[in-house]
Write a structure and sequence with these properties.
The chain is an alpha/beta fold. It folds into three domains: 192 residues, Class I glutamine amidotransferase (GATase) domain (Rossmann fold); 189 residues, Rossmann fold (3-Layer(aba) Sandwich); 108 residues, GMP Synthetase, Chain A, domain 3. It has 15 helices and 19 strands. Strand 8 and strand 9 form a beta hairpin. Bound molecules: xanthosine-5'-monophosphate (XMP). The site of xanthosine-5'-monophosphate (XMP) has 14 residues, from loops.
Protein backbone atom coordinates (compact mmCIF):
# COMPACT_ATOMS: atom_id res chain seq x y z
CA UNK A 1 0.00 0.00 0.00
CA UNK A 2 0.92 3.61 -0.62
CA UNK A 3 1.03 6.38 1.96
CA UNK A 4 0.13 9.87 0.79
CA UNK A 5 1.14 12.69 3.09
CA UNK A 6 -1.11 15.71 2.72
CA UNK A 7 0.48 19.14 2.70
CA UNK A 8 -2.86 20.82 2.08
CA UNK A 9 -3.19 20.99 -1.69
CA UNK A 10 -6.69 21.12 -3.11
CA UNK A 11 -5.59 18.22 -5.34
CA UNK A 12 -4.49 15.79 -2.61
CA UNK A 13 -7.65 13.71 -2.74
CA UNK A 14 -7.16 13.39 -6.47
CA UNK A 15 -3.75 11.78 -5.92
CA UNK A 16 -5.43 9.15 -3.77
CA UNK A 17 -8.17 8.56 -6.32
CA UNK A 18 -5.70 8.23 -9.19
CA UNK A 19 -3.61 5.75 -7.22
CA UNK A 20 -6.70 3.70 -6.40
CA UNK A 21 -7.66 3.77 -10.08
CA UNK A 22 -4.40 1.94 -10.76
CA UNK A 23 -5.75 -0.78 -8.42
CA UNK A 24 -3.40 0.02 -5.58
CA UNK A 25 -4.66 0.69 -2.09
CA UNK A 26 -3.52 3.98 -0.57
CA UNK A 27 -4.21 6.06 2.49
CA UNK A 28 -4.14 9.79 2.93
CA UNK A 29 -2.74 11.22 6.17
CA UNK A 30 -1.76 14.70 7.39
CA UNK A 31 1.86 15.68 6.71
CA UNK A 32 2.68 15.58 10.43
CA UNK A 33 1.78 11.91 10.86
CA UNK A 34 3.94 10.46 13.61
CA UNK A 35 7.02 8.41 12.87
CA UNK A 36 5.57 5.48 14.80
CA UNK A 37 2.37 5.52 12.72
CA UNK A 38 4.32 5.73 9.48
CA UNK A 39 6.46 2.77 10.50
CA UNK A 40 3.41 0.83 11.64
CA UNK A 41 1.71 1.36 8.29
CA UNK A 42 4.76 -0.10 6.56
CA UNK A 43 4.02 1.47 3.16
CA UNK A 44 5.56 0.25 -0.09
CA UNK A 45 6.00 3.85 -1.17
CA UNK A 46 5.24 7.38 -0.07
CA UNK A 47 3.84 10.33 -2.01
CA UNK A 48 4.24 13.88 -0.72
CA UNK A 49 1.41 16.08 -1.94
CA UNK A 50 1.38 19.70 -3.00
CA UNK A 51 0.42 22.45 -0.61
CA UNK A 52 -0.23 26.17 -0.30
CA UNK A 53 2.86 27.06 1.72
CA UNK A 54 6.39 28.09 0.79
CA UNK A 55 9.40 26.13 2.04
CA UNK A 56 11.33 29.40 1.80
CA UNK A 57 9.46 30.56 4.87
CA UNK A 58 10.54 29.33 8.26
CA UNK A 59 7.66 27.68 9.96
CA UNK A 60 6.12 25.71 7.11
CA UNK A 61 5.46 21.95 6.97
CA UNK A 62 8.26 19.48 6.31
CA UNK A 63 8.04 15.76 5.68
CA UNK A 64 8.84 13.66 8.74
CA UNK A 65 12.50 12.67 8.38
CA UNK A 66 11.60 8.99 8.59
CA UNK A 67 10.08 9.27 5.10
CA UNK A 68 13.61 9.44 3.68
CA UNK A 69 15.00 6.77 6.00
CA UNK A 70 12.61 3.88 5.43
CA UNK A 71 14.30 2.79 2.22
CA UNK A 72 11.03 2.90 0.26
CA UNK A 73 10.46 4.95 -2.91
CA UNK A 74 9.26 8.52 -2.39
CA UNK A 75 7.50 10.76 -4.91
CA UNK A 76 7.24 14.48 -4.18
CA UNK A 77 4.66 16.51 -6.08
CA UNK A 78 4.88 20.33 -6.26
CA UNK A 79 5.30 21.43 -2.61
CA UNK A 80 6.26 17.80 -1.94
CA UNK A 81 9.13 18.23 -4.41
CA UNK A 82 10.19 21.49 -2.87
CA UNK A 83 10.28 20.17 0.67
CA UNK A 84 12.12 17.08 -0.52
CA UNK A 85 14.74 19.30 -2.18
CA UNK A 86 15.03 21.55 0.85
CA UNK A 87 15.27 18.68 3.33
CA UNK A 88 17.88 16.77 1.33
CA UNK A 89 20.22 19.70 0.77
CA UNK A 90 19.01 21.33 -2.45
CA UNK A 91 17.72 24.87 -2.86
CA UNK A 92 14.28 26.32 -3.41
CA UNK A 93 13.60 29.89 -4.44
CA UNK A 94 10.60 32.08 -4.36
CA UNK A 95 9.69 32.57 -8.01
CA UNK A 96 8.89 36.11 -9.05
CA UNK A 97 6.00 34.94 -11.17
CA UNK A 98 3.55 32.20 -10.43
CA UNK A 99 3.19 29.56 -13.09
CA UNK A 100 -0.36 28.34 -13.44
CA UNK A 101 -1.87 26.33 -16.25
CA UNK A 102 -0.68 24.15 -19.10
CA UNK A 103 3.02 23.82 -19.78
CA UNK A 104 5.07 21.67 -22.10
CA UNK A 105 8.01 19.90 -20.55
CA UNK A 106 10.79 17.82 -21.96
CA UNK A 107 11.64 14.53 -20.33
CA UNK A 108 15.40 14.30 -19.82
CA UNK A 109 17.65 11.35 -19.24
CA UNK A 110 16.10 7.94 -18.76
CA UNK A 111 14.43 8.10 -15.39
CA UNK A 112 12.48 5.05 -14.43
CA UNK A 113 9.57 7.39 -13.64
CA UNK A 114 9.16 9.11 -17.02
CA UNK A 115 10.82 6.65 -19.43
CA UNK A 116 8.76 6.41 -22.64
CA UNK A 117 5.98 8.57 -21.26
CA UNK A 118 5.25 11.36 -23.72
CA UNK A 119 2.51 13.15 -25.62
CA UNK A 120 4.70 14.04 -28.62
CA UNK A 121 8.24 13.86 -29.88
CA UNK A 122 10.10 17.10 -30.69
CA UNK A 123 12.01 17.70 -33.93
CA UNK A 124 15.17 16.87 -32.01
CA UNK A 125 13.71 13.55 -30.94
CA UNK A 126 12.92 14.49 -27.33
CA UNK A 127 9.77 13.28 -25.61
CA UNK A 128 7.43 16.18 -24.84
CA UNK A 129 4.74 16.02 -22.15
CA UNK A 130 1.83 18.38 -21.54
CA UNK A 131 1.49 19.03 -17.85
CA UNK A 132 -0.49 21.16 -15.42
CA UNK A 133 1.57 23.57 -13.34
CA UNK A 134 0.47 25.51 -10.29
CA UNK A 135 3.36 26.91 -8.31
CA UNK A 136 5.21 30.02 -7.22
CA UNK A 137 8.41 28.52 -5.81
CA UNK A 138 10.81 26.27 -7.64
CA UNK A 139 13.78 24.08 -7.01
CA UNK A 140 16.94 25.89 -8.15
CA UNK A 141 19.67 23.50 -6.99
CA UNK A 142 19.53 19.72 -6.87
CA UNK A 143 20.28 17.85 -3.66
CA UNK A 144 23.30 15.53 -3.81
CA UNK A 145 22.62 12.34 -5.76
CA UNK A 146 19.79 13.83 -7.86
CA UNK A 147 19.63 14.58 -11.56
CA UNK A 148 17.11 16.49 -13.66
CA UNK A 149 14.47 14.30 -15.30
CA UNK A 150 12.18 16.98 -16.78
CA UNK A 151 12.56 20.62 -17.67
CA UNK A 152 11.37 23.57 -19.69
CA UNK A 153 12.64 27.12 -20.07
CA UNK A 154 10.52 28.53 -17.20
CA UNK A 155 11.20 25.66 -14.85
CA UNK A 156 14.60 24.15 -15.59
CA UNK A 157 14.15 21.62 -12.78
CA UNK A 158 10.59 20.48 -13.45
CA UNK A 159 11.41 16.98 -12.26
CA UNK A 160 14.31 15.34 -10.44
CA UNK A 161 15.30 11.88 -9.35
CA UNK A 162 17.84 10.00 -7.29
CA UNK A 163 17.55 6.55 -8.84
CA UNK A 164 19.81 4.94 -6.25
CA UNK A 165 17.59 5.92 -3.35
CA UNK A 166 14.44 5.80 -5.50
CA UNK A 167 13.45 9.38 -4.70
CA UNK A 168 11.46 11.15 -7.42
CA UNK A 169 9.90 14.57 -7.63
CA UNK A 170 7.72 16.49 -10.07
CA UNK A 171 7.00 20.20 -10.03
CA UNK A 172 3.79 19.72 -12.00
CA UNK A 173 0.62 17.85 -11.04
CA UNK A 174 0.31 14.31 -12.42
CA UNK A 175 -2.92 13.81 -10.45
CA UNK A 176 -5.07 16.27 -12.43
CA UNK A 177 -6.59 15.14 -15.69
CA UNK A 178 -5.06 18.12 -17.53
CA UNK A 179 -1.79 16.19 -17.28
CA UNK A 180 -2.90 13.54 -19.75
CA UNK A 181 -0.04 11.18 -18.95
CA UNK A 182 -0.40 11.76 -15.22
CA UNK A 183 -2.08 8.46 -14.44
CA UNK A 184 0.64 6.66 -16.42
CA UNK A 185 3.26 8.38 -14.26
CA UNK A 186 1.52 7.46 -11.02
CA UNK A 187 1.01 3.91 -12.27
CA UNK A 188 4.71 3.75 -13.12
CA UNK A 189 5.57 4.90 -9.60
CA UNK A 190 3.28 2.56 -7.68
CA UNK A 191 3.63 -0.55 -9.86
CA UNK A 192 7.12 -0.50 -11.35
CA UNK A 193 9.00 1.51 -8.76
CA UNK A 194 7.20 0.57 -5.53
CA UNK A 195 6.32 -2.93 -6.73
CA UNK A 196 2.64 -2.80 -5.74
CA UNK A 197 0.38 -5.36 -7.43
CA UNK A 198 -3.11 -4.77 -8.82
CA UNK A 199 -4.70 -5.79 -5.54
CA UNK A 200 -7.32 -3.12 -5.07
CA UNK A 201 -10.45 -4.04 -7.03
CA UNK A 202 -14.13 -4.13 -6.24
CA UNK A 203 -14.88 -7.87 -6.38
CA UNK A 204 -11.99 -8.62 -4.02
CA UNK A 205 -12.97 -5.68 -1.88
CA UNK A 206 -16.50 -7.02 -1.50
CA UNK A 207 -15.38 -10.44 -0.33
CA UNK A 208 -12.80 -8.98 2.04
CA UNK A 209 -15.28 -6.45 3.42
CA UNK A 210 -17.89 -9.17 3.92
CA UNK A 211 -15.38 -11.30 5.84
CA UNK A 212 -14.32 -8.35 7.93
CA UNK A 213 -17.89 -7.37 8.81
CA UNK A 214 -18.74 -10.95 9.78
CA UNK A 215 -15.66 -11.22 11.98
CA UNK A 216 -16.39 -7.87 13.61
CA UNK A 217 -20.09 -8.34 14.23
CA UNK A 218 -20.28 -12.04 14.98
CA UNK A 219 -23.85 -12.94 15.81
CA UNK A 220 -24.88 -9.42 16.92
CA UNK A 221 -27.74 -7.39 15.55
CA UNK A 222 -26.98 -4.19 13.61
CA UNK A 223 -29.14 -1.14 12.93
CA UNK A 224 -28.69 1.40 10.18
CA UNK A 225 -30.45 4.65 9.39
CA UNK A 226 -31.34 4.31 5.74
CA UNK A 227 -31.96 7.63 4.00
CA UNK A 228 -32.17 6.50 0.41
CA UNK A 229 -29.00 8.48 -0.35
CA UNK A 230 -26.05 6.76 -2.01
CA UNK A 231 -23.88 6.19 1.06
CA UNK A 232 -26.44 4.70 3.43
CA UNK A 233 -27.94 2.65 0.58
CA UNK A 234 -24.64 1.09 -0.38
CA UNK A 235 -23.78 0.50 3.28
CA UNK A 236 -27.13 -1.29 3.69
CA UNK A 237 -26.57 -3.45 0.61
CA UNK A 238 -23.06 -4.40 1.72
CA UNK A 239 -24.12 -5.20 5.28
CA UNK A 240 -27.04 -7.21 4.00
CA UNK A 241 -24.66 -9.21 1.81
CA UNK A 242 -22.49 -9.85 4.87
CA UNK A 243 -24.96 -10.50 7.67
CA UNK A 244 -28.41 -10.83 6.07
CA UNK A 245 -31.19 -10.64 8.60
CA UNK A 246 -28.94 -9.51 11.45
CA UNK A 247 -29.30 -6.08 9.81
CA UNK A 248 -32.35 -3.90 10.43
CA UNK A 249 -32.68 -0.60 8.61
CA UNK A 250 -34.75 2.27 9.91
CA UNK A 251 -36.12 4.51 7.18
CA UNK A 252 -37.66 7.73 8.48
CA UNK A 253 -40.12 9.53 6.22
CA UNK A 254 -39.93 13.12 7.44
CA UNK A 255 -42.51 14.39 4.97
CA UNK A 256 -39.77 16.28 3.16
CA UNK A 257 -38.74 13.59 0.70
CA UNK A 258 -39.01 13.65 -3.08
CA UNK A 259 -41.96 12.28 -5.03
CA UNK A 260 -42.46 8.53 -4.39
CA UNK A 261 -39.13 8.34 -2.61
CA UNK A 262 -40.37 6.25 0.31
CA UNK A 263 -42.00 3.77 -2.07
CA UNK A 264 -38.80 3.49 -4.11
CA UNK A 265 -36.65 2.86 -1.06
CA UNK A 266 -39.02 0.20 0.22
CA UNK A 267 -39.23 -1.45 -3.18
CA UNK A 268 -35.46 -1.54 -3.72
CA UNK A 269 -34.50 -2.73 -0.26
CA UNK A 270 -37.42 -4.55 1.29
CA UNK A 271 -38.95 -6.13 -1.80
CA UNK A 272 -36.07 -6.63 -4.22
CA UNK A 273 -33.10 -7.21 -1.94
CA UNK A 274 -34.99 -8.67 0.99
CA UNK A 275 -33.49 -6.27 3.52
CA UNK A 276 -35.36 -5.82 6.82
CA UNK A 277 -36.56 -2.20 6.74
CA UNK A 278 -38.72 -0.46 9.29
CA UNK A 279 -40.56 2.31 7.50
CA UNK A 280 -41.48 5.06 9.95
CA UNK A 281 -43.91 7.63 8.63
CA UNK A 282 -43.11 10.58 10.87
CA UNK A 283 -44.18 13.23 8.39
CA UNK A 284 -47.03 14.58 10.52
CA UNK A 285 -44.70 14.91 13.50
CA UNK A 286 -42.00 16.74 11.53
CA UNK A 287 -44.48 19.12 9.91
CA UNK A 288 -46.11 19.78 13.25
CA UNK A 289 -42.80 20.86 14.78
CA UNK A 290 -41.97 23.00 11.76
CA UNK A 291 -45.26 24.88 11.76
CA UNK A 292 -44.76 28.62 12.06
CA UNK A 293 -40.96 28.40 11.86
CA UNK A 294 -39.36 30.49 9.12
CA UNK A 295 -35.71 30.86 10.12
CA UNK A 296 -33.47 28.54 8.03
CA UNK A 297 -31.10 27.57 10.83
CA UNK A 298 -34.01 26.99 13.20
CA UNK A 299 -35.63 24.74 10.62
CA UNK A 300 -32.44 22.75 10.14
CA UNK A 301 -32.07 22.28 13.89
CA UNK A 302 -35.65 21.13 14.30
CA UNK A 303 -35.38 18.62 11.46
CA UNK A 304 -32.08 17.30 12.84
CA UNK A 305 -33.45 17.01 16.36
CA UNK A 306 -36.66 15.33 15.25
CA UNK A 307 -34.70 12.81 13.24
CA UNK A 308 -32.60 11.84 16.23
CA UNK A 309 -35.71 11.52 18.35
CA UNK A 310 -37.60 9.33 15.92
CA UNK A 311 -34.56 7.21 15.19
CA UNK A 312 -33.81 6.65 18.86
CA UNK A 313 -37.42 5.78 19.60
CA UNK A 314 -37.45 3.20 16.83
CA UNK A 315 -34.08 1.71 17.63
CA UNK A 316 -34.99 1.40 21.29
CA UNK A 317 -37.53 -1.16 20.15
CA UNK A 318 -34.69 -3.23 18.72
CA UNK A 319 -33.32 -4.11 22.10
CA UNK A 320 -30.98 -6.75 20.70
CA UNK A 321 -29.00 -4.32 18.56
CA UNK A 322 -25.36 -3.91 19.54
CA UNK A 323 -24.07 -2.01 16.52
CA UNK A 324 -25.00 1.20 14.79
CA UNK A 325 -23.91 1.17 11.16
CA UNK A 326 -23.25 4.40 9.27
CA UNK A 327 -22.44 5.24 5.68
CA UNK A 328 -19.34 7.30 6.53
CA UNK A 329 -17.06 7.47 3.50
CA UNK A 330 -13.36 8.27 3.18
CA UNK A 331 -13.72 11.98 2.39
CA UNK A 332 -15.77 12.36 5.63
CA UNK A 333 -12.96 10.68 7.54
CA UNK A 334 -10.30 12.89 5.98
CA UNK A 335 -12.37 16.01 6.55
CA UNK A 336 -12.99 15.39 10.20
CA UNK A 337 -9.34 14.47 10.74
CA UNK A 338 -8.16 17.59 8.91
CA UNK A 339 -8.80 19.97 11.77
CA UNK A 340 -6.56 22.78 10.59
CA UNK A 341 -8.36 23.49 7.36
CA UNK A 342 -11.78 23.65 8.94
CA UNK A 343 -13.93 26.54 7.87
CA UNK A 344 -14.13 29.19 10.54
CA UNK A 345 -17.75 30.09 9.97
CA UNK A 346 -20.74 27.85 10.01
CA UNK A 347 -22.57 28.81 6.86
CA UNK A 348 -25.17 26.11 7.38
CA UNK A 349 -25.48 23.55 10.11
CA UNK A 350 -25.39 20.36 8.10
CA UNK A 351 -27.25 17.40 9.31
CA UNK A 352 -26.79 13.88 8.08
CA UNK A 353 -28.35 10.62 9.03
CA UNK A 354 -24.92 9.98 10.50
CA UNK A 355 -25.15 12.67 13.12
CA UNK A 356 -26.46 10.66 16.02
CA UNK A 357 -25.48 11.28 19.62
CA UNK A 358 -23.44 8.61 21.37
CA UNK A 359 -26.03 8.17 24.10
CA UNK A 360 -27.26 5.12 22.24
CA UNK A 361 -24.55 2.87 23.67
CA UNK A 362 -24.04 1.16 20.37
CA UNK A 363 -20.75 0.28 18.79
CA UNK A 364 -20.07 2.06 15.53
CA UNK A 365 -19.78 0.12 12.28
CA UNK A 366 -18.59 2.03 9.22
CA UNK A 367 -18.10 -0.37 6.35
CA UNK A 368 -17.44 2.34 3.72
CA UNK A 369 -14.82 4.23 5.71
CA UNK A 370 -12.06 3.46 3.24
CA UNK A 371 -13.90 4.32 0.03
CA UNK A 372 -14.15 7.38 -2.16
CA UNK A 373 -17.52 8.38 -3.58
CA UNK A 374 -16.89 6.88 -7.01
CA UNK A 375 -15.76 3.64 -5.38
CA UNK A 376 -18.92 3.62 -3.26
CA UNK A 377 -20.98 3.96 -6.45
CA UNK A 378 -19.11 1.15 -8.17
CA UNK A 379 -19.61 -1.00 -5.11
CA UNK A 380 -23.33 -0.21 -5.13
CA UNK A 381 -23.73 -1.26 -8.73
CA UNK A 382 -21.84 -4.50 -8.09
CA UNK A 383 -24.05 -5.22 -5.11
CA UNK A 384 -27.08 -4.96 -7.37
CA UNK A 385 -28.46 -1.54 -6.51
CA UNK A 386 -30.22 0.23 -9.39
CA UNK A 387 -27.83 2.61 -11.21
CA UNK A 388 -30.46 5.35 -10.97
CA UNK A 389 -30.17 5.18 -7.18
CA UNK A 390 -26.40 4.90 -7.15
CA UNK A 391 -25.88 7.83 -9.53
CA UNK A 392 -28.57 10.05 -8.07
CA UNK A 393 -27.68 13.67 -7.29
CA UNK A 394 -27.04 14.41 -3.63
CA UNK A 395 -30.04 15.34 -1.55
CA UNK A 396 -29.59 17.29 1.68
CA UNK A 397 -30.43 15.73 5.02
CA UNK A 398 -33.17 18.30 5.76
CA UNK A 399 -34.66 17.51 2.37
CA UNK A 400 -37.34 19.76 0.97
CA UNK A 401 -37.28 21.57 4.31
CA UNK A 402 -34.49 23.77 2.94
CA UNK A 403 -36.05 24.01 -0.52
CA UNK A 404 -39.31 25.48 0.71
CA UNK A 405 -38.29 28.97 1.72
CA UNK A 406 -39.68 30.16 5.00
CA UNK A 407 -42.44 28.21 6.67
CA UNK A 408 -42.81 24.58 5.60
CA UNK A 409 -46.36 23.41 4.84
CA UNK A 410 -47.61 20.15 3.45
CA UNK A 411 -49.36 21.97 0.63
CA UNK A 412 -46.07 23.55 -0.46
CA UNK A 413 -44.18 20.26 -0.17
CA UNK A 414 -46.75 18.51 -2.35
CA UNK A 415 -46.54 21.17 -5.07
CA UNK A 416 -42.75 21.19 -4.91
CA UNK A 417 -42.50 17.40 -5.18
CA UNK A 418 -44.53 17.38 -8.39
CA UNK A 419 -42.64 20.29 -9.94
CA UNK A 420 -39.31 18.73 -9.01
CA UNK A 421 -40.28 15.38 -10.54
CA UNK A 422 -41.11 17.11 -13.85
CA UNK A 423 -37.74 18.87 -13.87
CA UNK A 424 -35.94 15.56 -13.21
CA UNK A 425 -37.94 13.80 -15.93
CA UNK A 426 -36.99 16.41 -18.52
CA UNK A 427 -33.34 16.49 -17.45
CA UNK A 428 -33.18 12.73 -17.83
CA UNK A 429 -34.98 12.79 -21.17
CA UNK A 430 -32.77 15.42 -22.78
CA UNK A 431 -29.83 13.48 -24.13
CA UNK A 432 -26.91 14.65 -26.31
CA UNK A 433 -25.30 12.89 -29.31
CA UNK A 434 -23.03 10.96 -26.96
CA UNK A 435 -26.04 9.61 -25.10
CA UNK A 436 -25.43 11.70 -22.00
CA UNK A 437 -28.44 13.28 -20.33
CA UNK A 438 -28.53 16.71 -18.76
CA UNK A 439 -29.16 14.96 -15.47
CA UNK A 440 -25.79 13.26 -15.85
CA UNK A 441 -24.16 16.49 -16.98
CA UNK A 442 -25.25 18.40 -13.89
CA UNK A 443 -24.01 17.71 -10.39
CA UNK A 444 -27.18 18.71 -8.64
CA UNK A 445 -30.52 19.95 -9.93
CA UNK A 446 -33.77 20.64 -8.13
CA UNK A 447 -36.73 22.96 -7.76
CA UNK A 448 -37.12 25.52 -4.98
CA UNK A 449 -40.50 26.65 -3.71
CA UNK A 450 -40.83 30.41 -3.22
CA UNK A 451 -43.65 31.50 -0.94
CA UNK A 452 -44.49 34.35 -3.26
CA UNK A 453 -47.63 34.78 -5.34
CA UNK A 454 -47.67 36.45 -8.71
CA UNK A 455 -50.37 37.27 -11.21
CA UNK A 456 -50.77 35.28 -14.40
CA UNK A 457 -53.29 34.60 -17.08
CA UNK A 458 -54.40 31.14 -18.17
CA UNK A 459 -57.08 30.82 -20.82
CA UNK A 460 -59.26 33.82 -20.20
CA UNK A 461 -58.80 33.82 -16.48
CA UNK A 462 -56.53 35.62 -14.08
CA UNK A 463 -54.39 33.45 -11.84
CA UNK A 464 -52.66 34.41 -8.62
CA UNK A 465 -50.37 31.56 -7.72
CA UNK A 466 -46.96 30.44 -6.42
CA UNK A 467 -43.52 30.82 -7.99
CA UNK A 468 -40.86 28.12 -8.18
CA UNK A 469 -37.22 28.41 -9.18
CA UNK A 470 -35.21 25.82 -11.04
CA UNK A 471 -31.65 25.29 -9.82
CA UNK A 472 -29.00 23.27 -11.66
CA UNK A 473 -25.28 23.40 -10.93
CA UNK A 474 -22.06 21.86 -12.12
CA UNK A 475 -19.30 21.29 -9.60
CA UNK A 476 -16.46 18.96 -8.66
CA UNK A 477 -16.53 19.30 -4.92
CA UNK A 478 -19.72 21.25 -4.03
CA UNK A 479 -17.54 23.89 -2.38
CA UNK A 480 -17.71 26.04 -5.49
CA UNK A 481 -20.23 25.61 -8.28
CA UNK A 482 -21.33 27.14 -11.57
CA UNK A 483 -24.94 27.38 -12.62
CA UNK A 484 -25.56 25.00 -15.49
CA UNK A 485 -26.11 26.52 -18.92
CA UNK A 486 -29.18 24.44 -19.65
CA UNK A 487 -30.58 24.82 -23.17
CA UNK A 488 -33.43 27.33 -23.48
CA UNK A 489 -35.63 24.67 -25.10
CA UNK A 490 -35.20 22.43 -22.07
CA UNK A 491 -35.95 25.28 -19.66
CA UNK A 492 -39.00 26.21 -21.75
CA UNK A 493 -40.34 22.68 -21.71
CA UNK A 494 -39.91 22.36 -17.97
CA UNK A 495 -41.61 25.69 -17.36
CA UNK A 496 -44.57 24.82 -19.60
CA UNK A 497 -45.04 21.45 -18.05
CA UNK A 498 -44.84 22.67 -14.47
CA UNK A 499 -47.32 25.48 -15.06
CA UNK A 500 -49.70 23.25 -17.01
CA UNK A 501 -49.49 20.19 -14.82
CA UNK A 502 -49.10 21.58 -11.33
CA UNK A 503 -52.10 23.68 -10.47
CA UNK A 504 -51.05 26.28 -7.93
CA UNK A 505 -47.83 27.30 -9.70
CA UNK A 506 -48.05 29.91 -12.47
CA UNK A 507 -44.47 31.13 -12.78
CA UNK A 508 -41.10 29.41 -13.14
CA UNK A 509 -37.74 31.20 -12.90
CA UNK A 510 -34.17 29.97 -13.34
CA UNK A 511 -31.47 30.61 -10.74
CA UNK A 512 -28.30 31.93 -12.42
CA UNK A 513 -26.17 32.41 -9.32
CA UNK A 514 -22.83 30.73 -8.78
CA UNK A 515 -21.36 29.53 -5.52
CA UNK A 516 -19.89 31.67 -4.16
CA UNK A 517 -21.54 34.10 -3.64
CA UNK A 518 -24.78 32.08 -3.49
CA UNK A 519 -24.91 28.61 -1.99
CA UNK A 520 -26.32 25.63 -3.87
CA UNK A 521 -29.38 25.22 -1.68
CA UNK A 522 -31.40 28.35 -1.03
CA UNK A 523 -31.48 27.92 2.73
P1 LIG B 1 -24.69 24.47 -0.06
O1 LIG B 1 -26.12 24.85 -0.08
O2 LIG B 1 -24.04 24.70 1.27
O3 LIG B 1 -24.67 22.92 -0.29
O4 LIG B 1 -23.92 25.10 -1.19
C1 LIG B 1 -23.52 22.16 -0.60
C2 LIG B 1 -23.95 20.72 -0.73
O5 LIG B 1 -24.35 20.22 0.55
C3 LIG B 1 -25.68 19.75 0.48
N1 LIG B 1 -26.31 20.05 1.78
C4 LIG B 1 -26.50 19.15 2.76
N2 LIG B 1 -26.22 17.84 2.81
N3 LIG B 1 -27.09 17.73 4.99
C5 LIG B 1 -26.55 17.14 3.92
O6 LIG B 1 -26.33 15.94 3.96
C6 LIG B 1 -27.39 19.05 5.01
O7 LIG B 1 -27.89 19.57 6.00
C7 LIG B 1 -27.08 19.79 3.83
N4 LIG B 1 -27.24 21.09 3.47
C8 LIG B 1 -26.76 21.23 2.22
C9 LIG B 1 -26.31 20.47 -0.68
O8 LIG B 1 -27.43 19.77 -1.18
C10 LIG B 1 -25.15 20.52 -1.63
O9 LIG B 1 -24.97 19.29 -2.29
Amino acid sequence: KILILDFGSQYTQLIARRVRETNVYCELHPWDMSEADIRAMNPSGIILSGGPNSVTEGDTPRAPQVVFELGVPVLGICYGMQTMAAQLGGAVENGLVREFGYAEIRAQGHSSLLKDIQDRVSDQGHGLIDVWMSHGDKVTALPAGFSVIASNPTTPIAGMADEARRFYALQFHPEVTHTHQGTAMLARFVHDICGCGHDWNMPDYISEAVEKIRAQVGGDEVILGLSGGVDSSVAAALLHRAIGTQLTCVFVDNGLLRLNEAEQVMETFAQNLGVKVIHVDASAEFLHHLAGVTDPEQKRKIIGREFVEVFQRESAKLSQAKWLAQGTIYPDVIESAGGKNKKAHTIKSHHNVGGLPDTMHLKLLEPLRELFKDEVRELGVQLGLPPAMVYRHPFPGPGLGVRILGEVKKEYADLLRRADAIFMEELNATVDEAGKSWYAKTSQAFVVFLPVKSVGVMGDGRTYEWVVSLRAVQTQDFMTAHWAHLPYELLGRVSNRIINEVRGINRVVYDISGKPPATIEWE
